[in-house]
Write a structure and sequence with these properties.
Number of strands: 0
Structural class: mainly alpha
Distance between the termini: 71 Å
Number of helices: 4
Mean pLDDT: 78
Order of helices and strands: HHHH
Helix content: over 70%
Radius of gyration: 20 Å
Length: about 100
């Protein structure tokens, strides 16, 4: 009987993952993942004091937010995406020379 429970567990996990994938396909998480990736890059560049690259990443992330704001609000409704975008746009203004 115990063996049957252990055999059923992977099947149940697989079904749960399939249902999560179906939910994820309804919501387009691509922009959120992309913004997250750029925020991680910004953090790395700031830690290394590489301001030019941090500014490029900030501008890119701000543009992605602007283009995908309605989808991002559906995925993360409690985030203030406009404020996040404004902070990202402030980084180049404050620390980078505009050409």
């Amino acid at each position: 009987m115990l063996l049957n429970k252990f055999l059923l567990f992977p099947i149940l996990i697989g079904i749960k993952l399939l249902s999560l994938n179906a939910f994820a396909s309804e919501m387009n998480y691509g922009p959120l993942k992309t913004v997250d990736k750029h925020l991680e890059q910004i953090e790395d560049y700031l830690r290394d004091e590489n301001m030019p690259k941090a500014c490029i990443e900030a501008k890119t992330a701000a543009k992605i937010i602007k283009l995908n704001i309605s989808n991002l609000k559906k995925i993360e409704p409690y985030y203030n995406w406009e404020e996040i975008r404004n902070v990202l746009l402030e980084l180049p203004r404050a620390y980078c020379v505009e050409k």
